Amino acid sequence: MIIQNAKVIVCSPGRNFVTLKINTDEGIYGVGDGTLNGRELPVVSYLKDHIIPCLIGRDPFQIEDIWQYLYKGAYWRRGPVTMAAIGAVDMALWDIKAKALQTPLYNLLGGKSRDRVMVYSHANGCDLEASIDVVGKHLDEGYKAVRIQSGIPGVAGTYGVTNTKDPYEPAQRGLPPESKHWSTEKYLKYVPTLFQKIRDTFGDEPRLLHDCHHRLTPIEAGRLGKELEPYHLFWIEDCIPAELQEGFRVIRQHTTTPLAVGEVFNSIWDTHILISEMLIDYIRTSICHGGGISHMKKVVSFAELYHVKTGFHGATDLSPVTLAASLHFDLAINNFGIQEYMPHNELTDEVFPHAYYFKDGFMYPGDEPGLGVDMDEEKAAEYPYERAYLPINRKEDGTLFDW
Ligand code: GCO
Ligand code: MG
After folding, report:
1. Would the pTM of this model clear 0.85, i.e. be above it?
2. What is the mean pLDDT of residues 360-386?
3. How far apart are CA 280 and CA 140, in angstroms?
4. From the candidate CATH numbers 2.50.20.10, 3.20.20.120, 3.40.50.300, 3.30.70.260, the one assigned to the domain spanning 108-370
5. Which of 39, 172, 264, 313 to mutate to test ligand 1, by most ligand atoms within 8 A of the CB atom?
6. Which atom of ligand 1 lies at the shortest distance from residue 159's CA?
7. Which of these, 45, 105, 108, 363, has the minimum number of CB atoms within 10 Å of its CB?
8. Active site residue 168
9. How far is the CA of 285 from the centre of ligand 2 (A)?
10. Could you confirm whether 181 is annotated as catalytic?
11. Which pLDDT score, from 0 to 100, does residue 70 have?
12. Substitution candidate for ligand 1 out of 158, 211, 234, 316 with most atoms within 8 A of CB
Protein backbone atom coordinates (compact mmCIF):
# COMPACT_ATOMS: atom_id res chain seq x y z
CA MET A 1 0.00 0.00 0.00
CA ILE A 2 1.24 3.51 -0.76
CA ILE A 3 -0.01 7.02 -0.05
CA GLN A 4 -1.45 8.26 -3.32
CA ASN A 5 -2.58 11.74 -2.39
CA ALA A 6 -3.80 13.81 0.52
CA LYS A 7 -5.91 16.92 0.95
CA VAL A 8 -6.68 19.46 3.63
CA ILE A 9 -10.31 20.43 4.12
CA VAL A 10 -11.19 23.53 6.12
CA CYS A 11 -14.80 23.93 7.14
CA SER A 12 -16.82 25.93 9.63
CA PRO A 13 -20.04 24.19 10.73
CA GLY A 14 -20.45 26.66 13.61
CA ARG A 15 -16.69 26.82 14.21
CA ASN A 16 -13.56 26.16 12.17
CA PHE A 17 -11.98 22.74 11.68
CA VAL A 18 -8.89 21.65 9.74
CA THR A 19 -9.11 18.06 8.53
CA LEU A 20 -6.49 16.05 6.67
CA LYS A 21 -7.59 13.16 4.48
CA ILE A 22 -4.88 10.75 3.28
CA ASN A 23 -5.79 8.43 0.38
CA THR A 24 -3.97 5.21 -0.48
CA ASP A 25 -3.70 3.28 -3.74
CA GLU A 26 -5.86 0.52 -2.20
CA GLY A 27 -8.86 2.78 -1.70
CA ILE A 28 -8.46 2.95 2.09
CA TYR A 29 -8.22 6.47 3.47
CA GLY A 30 -7.58 7.98 6.88
CA VAL A 31 -8.66 11.24 8.53
CA GLY A 32 -6.71 13.44 10.93
CA ASP A 33 -7.51 16.64 12.84
CA GLY A 34 -5.13 19.63 12.63
CA THR A 35 -7.36 22.33 14.14
CA LEU A 36 -5.59 25.10 16.06
CA ASN A 37 -8.33 27.39 17.34
CA GLY A 38 -7.99 30.96 16.06
CA ARG A 39 -4.78 30.11 14.14
CA GLU A 40 -6.07 27.50 11.69
CA LEU A 41 -4.56 28.62 8.40
CA PRO A 42 -0.84 28.25 9.22
CA VAL A 43 -1.52 24.55 9.89
CA VAL A 44 -3.26 24.30 6.51
CA SER A 45 -0.25 25.82 4.77
CA TYR A 46 2.20 23.66 6.74
CA LEU A 47 0.34 20.57 5.60
CA LYS A 48 -0.29 21.62 1.99
CA ASP A 49 2.95 23.37 1.20
CA HIS A 50 5.44 21.32 3.19
CA ILE A 51 4.15 17.97 4.41
CA ILE A 52 1.83 16.50 1.79
CA PRO A 53 4.41 16.66 -1.05
CA CYS A 54 6.75 14.51 1.11
CA LEU A 55 4.09 11.90 1.87
CA ILE A 56 3.21 10.81 -1.65
CA GLY A 57 4.47 7.32 -2.48
CA ARG A 58 5.29 6.39 1.14
CA ASP A 59 4.14 3.25 2.92
CA PRO A 60 1.39 4.44 5.32
CA PHE A 61 2.16 1.53 7.68
CA GLN A 62 5.54 3.08 8.61
CA ILE A 63 3.95 5.44 11.09
CA GLU A 64 6.91 5.87 13.45
CA ASP A 65 9.38 6.50 10.65
CA ILE A 66 7.06 9.04 9.01
CA TRP A 67 6.61 10.77 12.39
CA GLN A 68 10.38 11.05 12.90
CA TYR A 69 10.85 12.16 9.29
CA LEU A 70 8.39 15.04 9.80
CA TYR A 71 9.72 15.99 13.26
CA LYS A 72 13.48 15.57 13.01
CA GLY A 73 13.51 16.05 9.26
CA ALA A 74 12.19 19.62 9.47
CA TYR A 75 15.12 20.68 11.68
CA TRP A 76 12.75 23.28 13.33
CA ARG A 77 11.09 21.30 16.06
CA ARG A 78 7.95 21.53 18.22
CA GLY A 79 5.52 24.46 18.38
CA PRO A 80 1.73 24.34 18.05
CA VAL A 81 1.58 24.68 14.25
CA THR A 82 4.19 22.02 13.50
CA MET A 83 2.86 19.58 16.07
CA ALA A 84 -0.81 19.99 15.06
CA ALA A 85 0.19 19.32 11.45
CA ILE A 86 2.21 16.23 12.41
CA GLY A 87 -0.65 15.20 14.71
CA ALA A 88 -3.10 15.29 11.79
CA VAL A 89 -0.84 13.07 9.66
CA ASP A 90 -0.26 10.65 12.51
CA MET A 91 -3.97 10.24 13.32
CA ALA A 92 -4.77 9.64 9.64
CA LEU A 93 -2.05 6.97 9.37
CA TRP A 94 -3.30 5.10 12.47
CA ASP A 95 -6.80 5.30 10.98
CA ILE A 96 -5.54 3.78 7.72
CA LYS A 97 -3.66 0.99 9.48
CA ALA A 98 -6.58 0.02 11.72
CA LYS A 99 -8.98 0.10 8.75
CA ALA A 100 -6.61 -2.05 6.69
CA LEU A 101 -6.41 -4.56 9.54
CA GLN A 102 -10.19 -4.24 9.98
CA THR A 103 -10.06 -3.52 13.68
CA PRO A 104 -10.97 -0.57 15.91
CA LEU A 105 -7.96 1.60 16.72
CA TYR A 106 -7.96 0.67 20.43
CA ASN A 107 -6.85 -2.85 19.47
CA LEU A 108 -3.64 -1.48 17.95
CA LEU A 109 -2.95 0.50 21.13
CA GLY A 110 -2.99 -2.56 23.37
CA GLY A 111 -6.67 -3.51 23.41
CA LYS A 112 -9.33 -2.55 25.92
CA SER A 113 -8.12 -1.80 29.44
CA ARG A 114 -11.66 -0.85 30.52
CA ASP A 115 -15.20 -1.04 29.18
CA ARG A 116 -16.01 2.65 29.10
CA VAL A 117 -14.51 6.09 29.41
CA MET A 118 -15.62 8.44 32.18
CA VAL A 119 -16.11 11.96 30.89
CA TYR A 120 -16.62 15.32 32.53
CA SER A 121 -19.05 17.90 31.24
CA HIS A 122 -18.97 21.70 31.34
CA ALA A 123 -21.41 23.39 33.70
CA ASN A 124 -21.25 27.12 33.05
CA GLY A 125 -23.39 29.59 35.00
CA CYS A 126 -23.46 33.38 34.89
CA ASP A 127 -23.81 33.54 38.71
CA LEU A 128 -23.94 31.29 41.77
CA GLU A 129 -27.59 30.34 41.40
CA ALA A 130 -27.31 29.61 37.67
CA SER A 131 -24.18 27.52 38.32
CA ILE A 132 -25.95 25.37 40.92
CA ASP A 133 -28.84 24.97 38.53
CA VAL A 134 -26.72 23.81 35.62
CA VAL A 135 -24.69 21.37 37.77
CA GLY A 136 -28.01 19.79 38.79
CA LYS A 137 -29.01 19.45 35.14
CA HIS A 138 -25.75 17.74 34.21
CA LEU A 139 -26.02 15.30 37.11
CA ASP A 140 -29.58 14.51 35.99
CA GLU A 141 -28.22 13.78 32.51
CA GLY A 142 -26.03 11.09 34.09
CA TYR A 143 -22.64 12.81 34.26
CA LYS A 144 -20.49 11.55 37.13
CA ALA A 145 -18.03 14.44 36.81
CA VAL A 146 -18.72 18.10 36.16
CA ARG A 147 -16.43 21.05 35.51
CA ILE A 148 -17.84 24.27 36.95
CA GLN A 149 -17.13 27.79 35.66
CA SER A 150 -19.14 30.65 37.10
CA GLY A 151 -19.52 34.39 36.58
CA ILE A 152 -17.53 36.30 39.22
CA PRO A 153 -19.44 39.02 41.11
CA GLY A 154 -18.18 42.41 39.95
CA VAL A 155 -16.35 41.08 36.86
CA ALA A 156 -18.11 41.54 33.52
CA GLY A 157 -17.87 38.19 31.68
CA THR A 158 -15.13 35.67 32.23
CA TYR A 159 -13.76 32.42 30.82
CA GLY A 160 -16.34 29.69 30.44
CA VAL A 161 -19.37 31.87 31.08
CA THR A 162 -22.04 32.94 28.66
CA ASN A 163 -25.01 35.23 29.09
CA THR A 164 -26.88 33.67 26.17
CA LYS A 165 -28.67 30.33 25.94
CA ASP A 166 -26.10 29.05 23.42
CA PRO A 167 -23.33 26.72 24.60
CA TYR A 168 -20.12 28.55 25.52
CA GLU A 169 -17.90 29.21 22.50
CA PRO A 170 -14.88 31.41 23.13
CA ALA A 171 -13.76 31.93 19.51
CA GLN A 172 -15.74 34.73 17.87
CA ARG A 173 -15.91 35.50 14.17
CA GLY A 174 -14.80 38.90 12.90
CA LEU A 175 -12.39 41.57 14.04
CA PRO A 176 -11.06 42.66 16.47
CA PRO A 177 -10.69 39.80 19.00
CA GLU A 178 -13.15 40.22 21.85
CA SER A 179 -11.78 41.87 25.00
CA LYS A 180 -12.59 40.39 28.43
CA HIS A 181 -12.01 41.70 31.97
CA TRP A 182 -10.30 40.16 34.96
CA SER A 183 -9.79 40.60 38.69
CA THR A 184 -7.74 37.99 40.55
CA GLU A 185 -8.86 39.44 43.90
CA LYS A 186 -12.56 39.02 43.13
CA TYR A 187 -11.99 35.57 41.63
CA LEU A 188 -10.07 34.24 44.65
CA LYS A 189 -12.72 35.57 47.00
CA TYR A 190 -15.58 33.93 45.10
CA VAL A 191 -14.44 30.46 44.04
CA PRO A 192 -14.25 28.77 47.50
CA THR A 193 -17.82 29.96 48.26
CA LEU A 194 -18.95 28.58 44.91
CA PHE A 195 -17.60 25.10 45.65
CA GLN A 196 -18.86 25.15 49.21
CA LYS A 197 -22.39 25.81 47.91
CA ILE A 198 -22.06 23.12 45.22
CA ARG A 199 -20.98 20.52 47.80
CA ASP A 200 -23.73 21.62 50.22
CA THR A 201 -26.29 21.18 47.44
CA PHE A 202 -25.10 17.97 45.76
CA GLY A 203 -23.13 16.14 48.45
CA ASP A 204 -19.81 14.32 48.30
CA GLU A 205 -20.28 12.02 45.36
CA PRO A 206 -20.06 14.05 42.14
CA ARG A 207 -16.55 14.63 40.90
CA LEU A 208 -16.06 18.39 40.66
CA LEU A 209 -13.48 20.08 38.46
CA HIS A 210 -12.50 23.68 37.81
CA ASP A 211 -10.42 25.46 35.15
CA CYS A 212 -8.42 28.53 36.28
CA HIS A 213 -7.43 29.09 32.65
CA HIS A 214 -3.84 30.20 33.27
CA ARG A 215 -4.71 33.20 35.46
CA LEU A 216 -2.93 32.85 38.79
CA THR A 217 0.63 33.16 40.04
CA PRO A 218 2.08 30.09 41.79
CA ILE A 219 1.45 31.47 45.29
CA GLU A 220 -2.11 32.49 44.39
CA ALA A 221 -2.70 29.00 43.01
CA GLY A 222 -1.34 27.55 46.26
CA ARG A 223 -3.85 29.64 48.20
CA LEU A 224 -6.76 28.61 45.97
CA GLY A 225 -5.85 24.92 46.14
CA LYS A 226 -5.58 25.09 49.93
CA GLU A 227 -8.93 26.86 50.32
CA LEU A 228 -10.61 24.31 48.05
CA GLU A 229 -9.26 21.29 49.95
CA PRO A 230 -12.41 20.81 52.08
CA TYR A 231 -14.47 20.34 48.89
CA HIS A 232 -12.23 17.57 47.48
CA LEU A 233 -12.01 18.64 43.87
CA PHE A 234 -11.07 16.07 41.24
CA TRP A 235 -8.67 18.72 39.93
CA ILE A 236 -7.97 22.37 39.35
CA GLU A 237 -6.73 22.93 35.84
CA ASP A 238 -4.18 25.32 34.34
CA CYS A 239 -3.94 27.27 37.58
CA ILE A 240 -0.83 29.10 36.32
CA PRO A 241 0.53 29.76 32.84
CA ALA A 242 2.70 26.67 32.54
CA GLU A 243 5.56 27.78 30.31
CA LEU A 244 7.59 27.88 33.51
CA GLN A 245 7.27 24.29 34.65
CA GLU A 246 9.18 25.07 37.86
CA GLY A 247 6.26 27.28 39.01
CA PHE A 248 4.44 24.12 40.03
CA ARG A 249 7.01 23.43 42.74
CA VAL A 250 5.64 26.39 44.69
CA ILE A 251 2.01 25.27 44.28
CA ARG A 252 2.79 21.73 45.41
CA GLN A 253 4.32 23.00 48.65
CA HIS A 254 0.98 24.49 49.64
CA THR A 255 -1.85 22.21 48.60
CA THR A 256 -3.02 18.64 48.11
CA THR A 257 -5.73 19.66 45.60
CA PRO A 258 -4.90 17.63 42.46
CA LEU A 259 -3.47 19.60 39.55
CA ALA A 260 -4.11 19.20 35.83
CA VAL A 261 -2.25 20.94 33.05
CA GLY A 262 -1.18 20.66 29.44
CA GLU A 263 -3.83 21.71 26.92
CA VAL A 264 -1.48 24.31 25.42
CA PHE A 265 1.53 21.96 25.44
CA ASN A 266 2.68 20.26 22.29
CA SER A 267 5.52 17.91 23.13
CA ILE A 268 7.01 15.74 25.84
CA TRP A 269 9.55 18.52 26.41
CA ASP A 270 6.79 20.73 27.84
CA THR A 271 6.00 18.10 30.45
CA HIS A 272 9.15 16.34 31.59
CA ILE A 273 9.84 18.40 34.74
CA LEU A 274 6.18 18.42 35.75
CA ILE A 275 5.91 14.66 35.36
CA SER A 276 9.26 13.47 36.66
CA GLU A 277 9.06 15.68 39.77
CA MET A 278 5.42 14.61 40.29
CA LEU A 279 4.28 18.23 40.29
CA ILE A 280 1.01 17.42 38.53
CA ASP A 281 -1.60 14.67 38.70
CA TYR A 282 -3.18 14.83 35.24
CA ILE A 283 -1.70 15.57 31.83
CA ARG A 284 -4.14 17.18 29.38
CA THR A 285 -2.29 17.65 26.11
CA SER A 286 -4.56 16.75 23.21
CA ILE A 287 -3.78 14.06 20.67
CA CYS A 288 -4.12 16.73 17.97
CA HIS A 289 -1.80 19.39 19.42
CA GLY A 290 0.60 16.85 20.93
CA GLY A 291 1.86 15.44 17.63
CA GLY A 292 -0.72 12.67 17.33
CA ILE A 293 -1.08 9.22 18.80
CA SER A 294 2.56 8.24 18.29
CA HIS A 295 3.95 11.09 20.38
CA MET A 296 1.21 11.07 23.02
CA LYS A 297 1.89 7.34 23.58
CA LYS A 298 5.36 8.38 24.73
CA VAL A 299 4.10 11.21 26.94
CA VAL A 300 1.51 8.96 28.57
CA SER A 301 3.92 6.04 29.14
CA PHE A 302 6.40 8.47 30.71
CA ALA A 303 3.58 9.84 32.90
CA GLU A 304 2.62 6.32 33.97
CA LEU A 305 6.02 5.85 35.63
CA TYR A 306 5.27 8.80 37.91
CA HIS A 307 1.61 8.08 38.76
CA VAL A 308 0.37 10.86 36.50
CA LYS A 309 -2.90 10.08 34.73
CA THR A 310 -4.53 11.45 31.59
CA GLY A 311 -7.33 13.97 31.20
CA PHE A 312 -7.18 14.73 27.49
CA HIS A 313 -8.32 18.11 26.30
CA GLY A 314 -11.71 17.66 24.62
CA ALA A 315 -13.10 21.12 23.95
CA THR A 316 -15.29 21.57 20.86
CA ASP A 317 -12.47 23.33 19.03
CA LEU A 318 -10.95 19.87 18.57
CA SER A 319 -12.89 18.07 15.87
CA PRO A 320 -14.77 14.77 16.24
CA VAL A 321 -11.65 13.14 14.75
CA THR A 322 -9.58 14.10 17.81
CA LEU A 323 -12.42 13.12 20.14
CA ALA A 324 -12.56 9.65 18.55
CA ALA A 325 -8.77 9.24 18.73
CA SER A 326 -8.87 10.26 22.40
CA LEU A 327 -11.61 7.75 23.22
CA HIS A 328 -9.71 4.84 21.63
CA PHE A 329 -6.59 5.92 23.50
CA ASP A 330 -8.49 6.35 26.80
CA LEU A 331 -9.90 2.85 26.48
CA ALA A 332 -6.52 1.26 25.85
CA ILE A 333 -4.12 2.81 28.39
CA ASN A 334 -3.78 1.82 32.03
CA ASN A 335 -3.18 5.33 33.43
CA PHE A 336 -6.39 6.84 32.09
CA GLY A 337 -7.85 9.49 34.41
CA ILE A 338 -10.86 11.16 32.81
CA GLN A 339 -11.85 12.58 29.41
CA GLU A 340 -13.15 16.10 28.79
CA TYR A 341 -16.36 16.09 26.77
CA MET A 342 -18.19 19.03 25.20
CA PRO A 343 -20.73 17.74 22.69
CA HIS A 344 -20.29 19.21 19.19
CA ASN A 345 -23.22 20.99 17.60
CA GLU A 346 -25.55 19.19 15.19
CA LEU A 347 -23.96 20.61 12.04
CA THR A 348 -20.52 19.35 13.13
CA ASP A 349 -21.93 15.91 13.82
CA GLU A 350 -23.44 15.90 10.31
CA VAL A 351 -20.12 16.82 8.71
CA PHE A 352 -18.31 14.17 10.79
CA PRO A 353 -20.47 11.04 11.11
CA HIS A 354 -19.05 8.94 13.93
CA ALA A 355 -19.39 5.69 15.84
CA TYR A 356 -18.63 7.06 19.32
CA TYR A 357 -21.48 7.76 21.73
CA PHE A 358 -22.34 8.98 25.22
CA LYS A 359 -24.38 7.02 27.71
CA ASP A 360 -24.98 7.68 31.39
CA GLY A 361 -21.80 9.63 32.13
CA PHE A 362 -19.49 7.49 30.01
CA MET A 363 -18.36 7.42 26.39
CA TYR A 364 -17.67 4.53 24.06
CA PRO A 365 -15.58 4.78 20.87
CA GLY A 366 -17.65 2.12 19.05
CA ASP A 367 -16.25 -0.91 17.26
CA GLU A 368 -15.90 0.26 13.67
CA PRO A 369 -12.51 -0.33 12.05
CA GLY A 370 -10.12 2.60 12.45
CA LEU A 371 -11.10 5.74 14.34
CA GLY A 372 -14.76 5.27 13.49
CA VAL A 373 -15.13 8.84 12.18
CA ASP A 374 -15.68 9.92 8.61
CA MET A 375 -15.97 13.26 6.88
CA ASP A 376 -18.82 14.22 4.56
CA GLU A 377 -16.94 16.49 2.16
CA GLU A 378 -20.05 17.74 0.37
CA LYS A 379 -21.61 18.84 3.64
CA ALA A 380 -18.31 20.38 4.74
CA ALA A 381 -18.25 22.48 1.56
CA GLU A 382 -21.52 24.12 2.65
CA TYR A 383 -19.68 25.70 5.61
CA PRO A 384 -16.60 27.58 4.37
CA TYR A 385 -13.88 28.87 6.69
CA GLU A 386 -14.60 32.09 8.59
CA ARG A 387 -11.82 33.96 10.38
CA ALA A 388 -12.32 33.77 14.14
CA TYR A 389 -10.28 34.75 17.19
CA LEU A 390 -10.07 33.70 20.81
CA PRO A 391 -10.60 36.63 23.19
CA ILE A 392 -7.91 38.70 24.84
CA ASN A 393 -8.10 39.59 28.52
CA ARG A 394 -7.34 42.79 30.47
CA LYS A 395 -7.11 43.58 34.17
CA GLU A 396 -9.36 46.28 35.63
CA ASP A 397 -6.68 48.94 35.01
CA GLY A 398 -6.32 47.90 31.36
CA THR A 399 -3.16 45.77 31.63
CA LEU A 400 -3.11 42.92 29.12
CA PHE A 401 -3.45 39.65 30.98
CA ASP A 402 -3.61 35.91 30.31
CA TRP A 403 -6.93 34.82 28.80
C1 GCO B 1 -10.79 23.53 28.17
C2 GCO B 1 -10.13 24.68 27.54
C3 GCO B 1 -10.83 25.30 26.39
C4 GCO B 1 -9.93 26.34 25.73
C5 GCO B 1 -10.11 26.27 24.26
C6 GCO B 1 -9.28 27.27 23.52
O7 GCO B 1 -10.44 23.23 29.29
O8 GCO B 1 -11.62 22.92 27.52
O9 GCO B 1 -9.60 25.56 28.47
O10 GCO B 1 -12.09 25.79 26.73
O11 GCO B 1 -10.20 27.61 26.21
O12 GCO B 1 -9.81 24.98 23.86
O13 GCO B 1 -9.37 27.04 22.16
MG1 MG C 1 -8.80 24.28 30.02
Report:
1. yes
2. 98
3. 31
4. 3.20.20.120
5. 313
6. 11
7. 45
8. no
9. 10
10. no
11. 98
12. 211
